[in-house]
Amino acid sequence: MALVLVVLFIVVPVMEIYVIVQVGQVLGVLPTVALLLFESALGAWLVKREGRRAWHTLRDALGSGRLPSRELADAALILVGGTLLLTPGFVTDVAGFFLVLPITRPIARRLLGLVLARRATLLVSRAGPVRGWPAGGGQGAGGARQPRGPRVVQGEVIHGEVVPDHPEDDTPRR
After folding, report:
1. What does the pLDDT read at residue 9?
2. For 172, which DSSP code?
3. Which alpha helices (DSSP H) does the chain contain, by range?
4. Mean of pLDDT over the chain
């Protein structure tokens, strides 16, 4: 997380300044400022249009009773892309347009899904064998007793059937 913050607050602004200076040397000061203003205005218009479209599709999905996962991902990408487009600079504008444009947003959505899936896998693998409970006897650091929970047991598989505690209560449980 610290590396992400260093990149966000140090590397990106330095890179933006460098690119703006390089573009300014090629085009001149006034055309560079005009280009930055034009990109910001175009980005604001695009975010407004795509944001409305995402809002309507989200409402339609909720109205039809289906899970709006794609619509929520699009809304999040448009929000982040809009923030990047409002940040002055060429590099953040390129990233913002990538997240907001309807042609490139499916690629960004796919990348977001891969990142989230990897993050979830890492969190689950760090949590421990089963729901974060220790695998060995419930003893934590320093011999302190941990709450009892399901444990992972290695060994033979015993086949059998589940018998309810109360014979009159034979309704299947979920």
Report:
1. 87
2. P
3. 2-6, 12-27, 29-64, 69-86, 90-100, 105-127
4. 83
